[in-house]
Write a structure and sequence with these properties.
Layout: H1 2-24, E1 33-38, H2 44-56, E2 63-70, E3 77-79, E4 85-88, E5 91-94, E6 104-107, E7 111-114, E8 119-122, E9 129-131, E10 137-140, E11 144-147, E12 154-156, E13 162-172, E14 178-180, E15 186-196, E16 203-205, E17 211-221, E18 227-229, E19 235-245, E20 255-259, E21 265-275, E22 278-282, E23 285-295, E24 304-306, E25 310-318, E26 325-326
Parallel strand pairs: 1-2, 2-4, 2-5, 3-6, 4-7, 5-8, 6-9, 7-10, 8-11, 9-12, 10-13, 11-13, 12-14, 13-15, 14-16, 15-17, 16-18, 17-19, 18-20, 19-21, 20-22, 21-23, 22-24, 23-25, 24-26
């Protein structure tokens, strides 16, 4: 009996020591991360190589943060695998002179995010950010991504890609602010501003099965459509925020939101859509249950123009010189 008691006591003491040891250990930290700093004097290859090395050393769930600043900036292609995030907090500007290549080109199915204080500013013919990977994720949560040349600001080529603007500014003074060619691309604006002030749309897509959602923030174009889709089976959802066309001539733009194809669907449950001529137009169907749609002084403009049908169960539509609802 004494032997059993001693064994039991020893077992309890060992268990207590293990519990005490684990209690003394610090809580496990979140996913590991690393930081890469860009400096003014380094070359294109050096910048690309050290960022790619940090990415290669990262495991799924980990983040590589890029800081620093550089003018005359340019980079080769970086490959971000699925599960890895590159968080861009660097302030960089440059001139992508080739229309094919971007100031910064990313490949792979990982996430590239521009955060507060980060900036990628292009003055050349190519895009500021060029994304090639299928299922790639581009996020602008803060900072500025811009192009004052004739290229796009953000260009996405891969299928099943996601582009999210939740803060900051995506702007273009001559070309398209966001251009997506891949099928089944998802573009979400939940904050911040997407703006095109030249002869180009704010958001333009070519692929089939695209979904564009605006829940907050602003999407605007001055001389073309703010949102324009060309692919079949495209959907635009507006539940909040502002989508506007600020043109002052009937010949510069006819629509704020335009979806080609008779399988297109526009759902509006909130927010504001305004235009000089026509606010919302599609060969498909418009479903409106809330929000405000208006046209100002353009000639013969429509608030809602759905050739496949207009289903209105709520919200407000007004037009100064044309019909509130056409089709």
């Amino acid at each position: 009996m004494k032997t059993i008691s001693r064994k039991l006591l020893s077992t309890l003491l060992a268990a207590a020591m293990v519990v005490t040891l684990f209690a003394a250990m610090p809580a496990t930290a979140g996913a590991a991360s690393s930081t890469v700093t860009i400096v003014q004097g380094e070359g294109v290859f050096d910048t690309s190589q050290k960022i790619q090395t940090a990415i290669n050393n990262a495991s799924p769930g980990e983040t590589v943060t890029v800081t620093g600043s550089k003018t005359n900036f340019g980079m080769g292609l970086i490959d971000i695998p699925s599960g890895v995030t590159v968080l861009w907090k660097a302030a960089c500007s440059g001139n992508a002179v080739d229309a094919t290549y971007g100031l910064l080109t990313v490949n792979g199915g990982g996430t590239f995010e521009v955060a507060a204080d980060g900036s990628i500013k292009n003055t050349g013919d190519g895009p500021a950010i060029r994304s090639l990977g299928a299922s790639a994720v581009i996020i602008v949560s803060g900072g500025t991504v811009s192009n004052t040349g004739i290229g796009d600001t953000i260009y996405s080529a891969g299928i099943n890609s996601r582009i999210t603007v939740s803060g900051g500014l995506v702007e273009n003074s001559n070309g398209i602010a966001i251009l997506a060619d891949g099928a089944n691309t998802s573009i979400t604006v939940s904050g911040g501003t997407v703006s095109a002030t030249g002869e180009a749309p704010g958001i333009f897509t070519n692929g089939a099965g695209v979904t564009i959602s605006v829940s907050s923030g602003t999407v605007s174009a001055e001389n073309r459509n703010a949102i324009h889709t060309e692919g079949e089976n495209s959907t635009v959802n507006v539940s909040g925020g502002t989508v506007k066309n600020t043109a002052t001539s009937n010949y510069t733009s006819q629509h704020t939101i335009y979806l080609a194809g008779d399988t297109a669907v526009i759902n509006m449950s909130g927010g504001t859509v305004s235009a000089w001529v026509s606010a919302i137009s599609t060969s498909g169907v418009i479903n409106m249950s809330g929000g405000t749609v208006s046209t100002t002084t353009g000639t013969n403009g429509h608030g809602l123009n759905g050739y496949g049908g207009v289903n209105m169960n709520g919200g407000t539509v007004s037009a100064i010189t044309g019909n509130g609802i056409g089709g």
